[in-house]
Task: inverse folding
């Protein structure tokens, strides 16, 4: 977890003021203190039964929509960058469709 936080900082991603929900398996007072003191990040650790299902649901939907299983990223920041690129392409396609008077979700024409 601390390695991922350091990678975010090296990439210039500001974590100050953010609150992250963390899986129970990553519970550590030392990591919570490190994240808050070094980056201003608040980590909330929930009970496994209460938060696991919604978090895993969101992750599985994002994975299927953006085909994240096929990204081939080797680091956390690599996954972040590729995900960022996919969202940027999605937003650009919607912008072009809006400008051309087409349906916003008619994205197949932009696929390569």
Result:
């Amino acid at each position: 977890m601390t390695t991922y936080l350091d990678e975010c900082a090296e990439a210039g991603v500001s974590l100050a003021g953010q609150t992250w929900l963390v899986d129970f398996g990553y519970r550590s007072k030392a990591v919570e203190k490190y994240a808050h003191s070094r980056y201003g990040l608040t980590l909330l650790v929930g009970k496994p039964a209460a938060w696991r299902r919604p978090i895993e649901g969101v992750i599985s939907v994002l994975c299927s929509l953006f085909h994240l299983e096929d990204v081939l990223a080797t680091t956390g920041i690599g996954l972040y960058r590729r995900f960022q690129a996919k969202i940027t392409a999605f937003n650009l396609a919607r912008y072009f469709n809006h400008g051309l008077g087409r349906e916003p979700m008619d994205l197949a024409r932009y696929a390569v």
